[in-house]
Amino acid sequence: MVEGNVFYEVALILGMATLFGVIGQRLRQPLIIMFLAAGIAAGPSALSIISSYDQIELLAHIGISLLLFIVGLKLDLGLIRTMGPVAMATGLGQIIFTSIFGFAIALALSYSFISSVYIAVTLTFSSTIIIVKLLSDKKEIDSLHGQIALGFLIVQDIAAILALVGLTFFRAGPEGEQSMALTLLWITLKGLGFVGVVGLLMWRVLPWLTQRLAYSQEILTLFSISWTVILSMVSDYLGFSKEVGAFLAGVSLASTEYRDAIGGRLASLRDFLLLFFFIDLGARLDWTAVGSQIGPAIIFSLFVLIGNPLIVLVIMGVMGYRRRTSFLAGLTVAQISEFSLIVAALGFSLGHITAPVVGLITLVGVVTILASTYMILYSGPLYQLLSKPLKIFEKKNPQREAAECCLYDAAETDAILVGLGSYGGALAEHLLRRRKRIIAVDFDPAVLKKWRQQGVSVLYGDIGDPEIHEQLPLDKTRWIVSTVRIRELNLSLLQMLKNRGYQGNLALTAAAPQDATAYERAGVPVIFRPYLDLGEQAADTLTHAMDVLQGMADWKIQFREVRLPSGSIYSGQYVQDIPLRSQTGVSILAVTRAGRHYYDPEPNFRIYPGDRLILTGALDDLLEAERLLRETDIHAETEAGDNIRLEEVKLGAASVVTGRTLGETAFRKRYGISVIGILREEKLLKAPGPDERLHAGDRLLVLGDADSITAFRAHS
């Protein structure tokens, strides 16, 4: 019943692929391996579910075309330029090394010349998809070793495309030197013409066309797929492989502003259709032939797992990188990729290689992908185990990494800030505005470069690296602040500080409540909870908006939250003195201060720096109101900046302000401070009005910069 019914076969295949995928996820295995396993299980070697090979092969070809399209779409040559020589040197060096030695090993194992060429070529490619996924999961994609790895993976992708083009020549099967020369010339002319036409369309037509199609994402996605398939068809018609056409289709759309949107929408479809490629490959494996390749497969697998990382270690060591960076980057080339399997399948379809050779390459792929996945997942412990032997690959003074990733000023500092992501970067910015001296630590070279250009002392490092701990100037700082949100890394940092006898203060960032609990138990004095705190603040704002704006849907009004900067000319002013309604028509719905919310503030309610004002009005009026509130007092900004503090000042009987009202004293104008509270005979007066009279013995809670408060104390 199932046999010969394509729909039934596909249904069973998808069910098996899902089951194998779930198992692979639990075992932390790449889906490629599990899909191959599903294909083997569905093939003639096991359950014999598949009989409609032609239909499944068609889906497989479309999946491969989409894969190459997205590779072309995401091709980031700028990354190669950013990484400089290391991406090119390492990428090309690894390709040359692997090709030469892989070819020699294949010949030594008695494979034919053409089979040895295919084996050597397939051993050079590493899986960009797998590496990006693993590095992203480990949050190492932006690290120095992650960026270097992406750089030489791009070099490999370009080499893979060239290999596919080269197969076109073999596909022609020339005989004789003259015929070979003519064939090569004809192929070159056709290739240049094809690329020229695509380039002309990319320059003159595609930007205009995509801009008009972008009004509908569905149409834009459909166009991208059809464009890929059409160029694949043209490429195949001209004698090139379908994959070359698909790659050019991606490159032709890479310069448009919609490439990210296209890639995002097609990624899931690509993964779905590639499923059929790996299932088809697994189902077609001749396990009788594969069994005879186990010995050579072990040899080639060890060569890829050990030899490829070694060449990266050697090249990067010579270029002056630390052994840890070289080792972690080298692990990313310790496997062969989906490109390798595509090349092997294409070679088999052209009759260049036999089923046993395809089985060999597939078996090497399975072994190396499995092993390298675990090597990358557990790269930290693996490096600690091999750290001492790896020292031979590191210069005595690895200056390149230090030069590229920055040195810090060894002077006294207020804080060492670890992590310069969105949260850490914002924290660093505000600390600098408050004139705090910091050393910023991160493993993203681009981020460090940006901060270094702003005059900040920066240090390249990963707190998961034991070597970085020795570089931190703990004896010259009062605070260690980590904005990293990985509990294990923060606890490791805490243990390191204890081991080194650090006597200063520590602040850690918790991504979840259980992380905060773990830090509290460990005795961490200051804990940041950005997600929880911001979520609470957002909920408060939204709740208030819901309550206030309920029933106002027919009114053409909006609301906006504005934070009052410390240098605003309205800092310390009463609501009644802020000309929002008179100048913009905007009203203040509420004020949020230190986690408390003051709804519908009275006219004598005073506004302070850092207050968050929820405003309502027309959009244009709201924008004008925000501009008005952000106007700064140049004198206040230059003199006080953000160095605002709250202090208590007790009034004596001889004070010049005793017996006078707050309105009469003109604190803001005369002293540059604001009175936000009065403690009188154990009674607290919050937000006192201008008519409140001051008495001897009153304790005033005043807001201002240090100099202004000191000046007022002299008169109190």
SSE inventory with pairings:
Blueprint: H1 6-26, H2 31-42, H3 53-73, H4 77-83, H5 85-108, H6 113-124, H7 128-137, H8 144-172, H9 177-204, H10 206-213, H11 217-237, H12 242-254, H13 259-284, H14 287-291, H15 294-318, H16 323-331, H17 338-349, H18 355-377, H19 379-386, H20 399-405, E1 413-418, H21 422-433, E2 438-442, H22 445-453, E3 457-460, H23 466-471, E4 477-482, H24 487-499, E5 505-509, H25 513-521, E6 526-528, H26 530-549, E7 558-563, H27 580-584, E8 587-593, E9 596-599, E10 612-617, H28 619-629, H29 634-639, E11 644-650, H30 662-665, H31 667-671, E12 674-680, E13 683-686, E14 699-705, H32 706-713
Parallel strand pairs: 1-2, 1-4, 2-3, 4-5, 5-6
Antiparallel strand pairs: 7-10, 8-9, 8-10, 11-14, 12-13, 12-14
Helix pairs in contact: 1-2, 2-13, 3-11, 3-12, 3-13, 4-8, 5-6, 5-8, 5-15, 6-17, 7-8, 8-16, 8-17, 9-12, 11-12, 15-16, 15-18, 17-18
Find the structural class using helix and strand composition. Answer: alpha/beta
Percent of residues in β-strands: 5-15%
**What's the number of structural domains?**
4
Given the structure, what is the number of helices?
Answer: 32
Structural write-up:
Helix 24 (487-499) links the parallel strand 4 and strand 5. The model is unreliable at 174-178, 550-555 and 634-642 (pLDDT under 50). The longest helix has 29 residues, at 144-172. The relative contact order is 0.07. The N and C termini lie far apart (98 Å). The strands form three sheets. This protein has a six-stranded parallel β-sheet with strand order 3-2-1-4-5-6, sandwiched between helices. It has four domains: 6-171 and 180-386, Na+/H+ antiporter like fold, CATH 1.20.1530.20; 406-528, NAD(P)-binding Rossmann-like Domain (Rossmann fold); 533-635, Regulator of K+ conductance, C-terminal domain (Alpha-Beta Plaits), CATH 3.30.70.1450; 643-713, Regulator of K+ conductance, C-terminal domain (Alpha-Beta Plaits), CATH 3.30.70.1450. It has 32 helices and 14 strands. Helix 7 runs antiparallel to helix 8 (144-172), helix 11 packs across helix 12 and helix 15 packs across helix 18.
